[in-house]
Specification:
By secondary structure, the protein is an alpha+beta fold. It contains two helices and eight strands. A hairpin with a 4-residue loop joins strand 7 and strand 8.
Length: 147
C-alpha cells in the first residue's frame, strides 16, 4: 500500500517569507507606536501647564477681592479686607508665595521659580515668572476702578 500523494498541499517558501515579513512589520509598527506614546506621557509629566493654570486661577481669585497698594522690590502688595498681603519670590526660595506685609507666613502658590519680575502701569499688574526648568510665563491682571 502506498500512501504517497503526488500533490501534497503545503506552504511554499515564498508564502512563509511573506507571512514572516507581514508579522515583523506589524510588530515594528506596534513597537514604534508604544515608544511614541511613552514619549508623550513623559512630556506631559514634565509639563508645568497644569501648575501654571492652577497658579493663574489662584492669583485671580486672590486679586478679585483686593485693591492694588503698590509694586516695589519685586513684590506685589494688595489691600484685602484682612490687611495687606504681599506676593512674590523670597530671596533664596524657589516658590512664588503669599505672605503678610512683613513677609511672615508661608503660602506657596507655585514651585520651581527661578525669578519673578513685577511691574504696574495704571492699575494693570504684569508678573513675569522664569522657571528653573526653563521657560517663562507672564501673568497680567487689571484691577477694577474703585466705585
Amino acid at each position: 500500500m502506498k500512501f504517497y500523494k503526488k500533490h501534497l498541499r503545503a506552504f511554499t517558501l515564498l508564502e512563509c517569507m511573506v507571512a514572516l515579513l507581514s508579522i515583523s512589520l506589524t510588530l515594528l509598527v506596534f513597537q514604534s507606536m508604544t515608544a511614541l506614546i511613552s514619549q508623550e506621557y513623559k512630556a506631559i509629566g514634565q509639563s508645568d501647564e497644569k501648575n501654571w493654570q492652577n497658579f493663574s486661577n489662584l492669583m485671580r481669585r486672590e486679586l478679585e477681592q483686593a485693591q492694588l497698594d503698590r509694586v516695589s522690590n519685586h513684590f506685589l502688595y494688595v489691600q484685602t479686607p484682612k490687611g495687606i498681603r504681599r506676593f512674590g519670590v523670597k530671596a533664596g526660595s524657589d516658590d512664588f508665595r503669599k505672605t503678610n506685609e512683613q513677609g511672615q507666613g508661608y503660602h506657596p502658590m507655585i514651585y520651581g521659580v527661578f525669578s519673578a519680575e513685577m511691574s504696574s502701569v495704571d492699575k494693570v499688574v504684569t508678573i513675569r515668572i522664569r522657571f528653573k526648568k526653563g521657560g517663562e510665563r507672564t501673568f497680567i491682571y487689571a484691577f477694577p476702578e474703585l466705585k
